[in-house]
C-alpha cells in the first residue's frame, strides 16, 4: 500500500461528541464517530494500517478481521473524497 497522508488545509472541529472534517476546496465533508476518530488520530500521527487495526482491536474489543475491514473501508472513503492523499 502506498504511503498516504491527510490533505493539508482541512478544517477539523469537535461538534456534539463528533469530529467534523471539511475540505474547503472541494466541500468534501465527514462526520466521525468514535472509531472514525480513532482512525483519524492514528492517520494524523502517520501510523501504518497494521498499527491502526491493532488499536481498533484493543480499544473497541472487536475481531481483527472486522477491524481490518472497517479501517480499509474508512481509508478508501477518505481517499475517494480527496481527504487522504499520496504522501
Short note summarizing the structure:
With 87 residues, the protein is of the alpha+beta class. The chain has helices at residues 34-44, 49-60, 64-80; strands at residues 4-6, 11-15, 18-23, 28-32, 84-86. It has 3 helices and 5 strands; from the N terminus they run E-E-E-E-H-H-H-E.
Rounded Rg? 13 Å
Number of strands: 5
Q: What share of residues are in beta strands?
A: 25-35%
Strand arrangement across the biggest beta sheet: 2-3-4
Give the CA-CA distance, first to last residue: 12 Å
Please tell me the total number of domains: 1
Derived structural class: alpha+beta
Helices and strands, in order, run as EEEEHHHE
Task: Count the DSSP helices.
Answer: 3
The level of helicity is 40-55%
Task: Specify the overall morphology.
Answer: globular
Q: Which sheet architecture does the biggest sheet show?
A: 3 strands, antiparallel
- Uncertain spans: none
Mean pLDDT: 89
Describe the structure.
By secondary structure, the protein is of the alpha+beta class. It has one domain (7-82). The chain is 46% helix and 25% strand. The strands form 2 sheets. A 3-stranded antiparallel sheet has the order 2-3-4. It has a two-stranded antiparallel sheet with strand order 1-5. It is globular, with a radius of gyration of 13 Å.
Amino acid at each position: 500500500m502506498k504511503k498516504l497522508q491527510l490533505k493539508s488545509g482541512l478544517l477539523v472541529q469537535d461538534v456534539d461528541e463528533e469530529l467534523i472534517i471539511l475540505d474547503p476546496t472541494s466541500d468534501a465533508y465527514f462526520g466521525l464517530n468514535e472509531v472514525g476518530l480513532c482512525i483519524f488520530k492514528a492517520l494524523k500521527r502517520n501510523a501504518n494500517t497494521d498499527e491502526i487495526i491493532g488499536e481498533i482491536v484493543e480499544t473497541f474489543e472487536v475481531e481483527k478481521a472486522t477491524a481490518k475491514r472497517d479501517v480499509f473501508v474508512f481509508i478508501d472513503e477518505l481517499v475517494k473524497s480527496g481527504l487522504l492523499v499520496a504522501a
